[in-house]
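Hey, can you fold this one?
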Amino acid sequence: MATPHVAGVAALALSVNPTLSALQLKSTLLNNVDAVAGLAGKVLTGGRLNAAKVLNSLGLTVIATSPSAGATVTTPPTSFTIHFSQAFIPASVAASDFTVNGVAATSFVLDDADSITFQFDVSPVTTDGLQTMALAAGSITRQSDATALSAFSGQFRYDSVPLTFVSSTPPLGSLVSLPFSTLDLLFNEAVDASSIGLGDLSVSQGTVIGASLLNPTTVRFTLSGIANEGAFNFSIAAGALRDAYGNAGSAVSGAFSLDIGTVATSKPVQTVKRFYGLSQP
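Sure. Predicted structure:
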């Protein structure tokens, strides 16, 4: 039953400090055991893994935030909640400990023994794109032994106007005559050219052979091998395209119909005359 116990403690350690390398994690586990005489000479450490010692050895760290690292918000926040791995000394906390984009908080509320909400009179989030939260090393101390906080830095995104699909050329639902080789997609804001690739667009027939910006808000896809009549469907997964600030775009989907149209014949059409008569009695 040792393996599940060790695996569980390892996962707990990584939740407290996700930056641990494999070697650092191994060393942390091996160096935090309770000696057991009966295990001497039978296991490498001669003891039993102690989860509490492992956590204490990792010090005081930030384990979660709100907004969370990697999240995207659409309204500039003025409150940020920070969750720590263990209880901290309340007297060690100051509003200026926490910064967003280099701007210090103006006040804070102690939510519980291991959580703080830092507040700003005016949101420090003023432009779209990446935003950086930070707590300096040693700014807050652990309650159990006054161990200093490990430095924390986490990023989230602000997207005031999410990138969304507006219309297409040819128009959605229209009847398009073959041959067909160009699809233009219009968006509500500028698209980051570096985020555009051939693999972004999925089509129900044919192949995407080109992808580029026609203008700041229009992406042109060049297609080949489209020869069949019927419905033509296309889609782009959420996050495949990004706006000028690097924020992920919404999913795109659409359809229209393809038609070969009038086909010329190689020979002239001949008129056939047919005569009908009355039968004799």
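The radius of gyration is 32 Å. Let me know if you want another pass with a different chain boundary.
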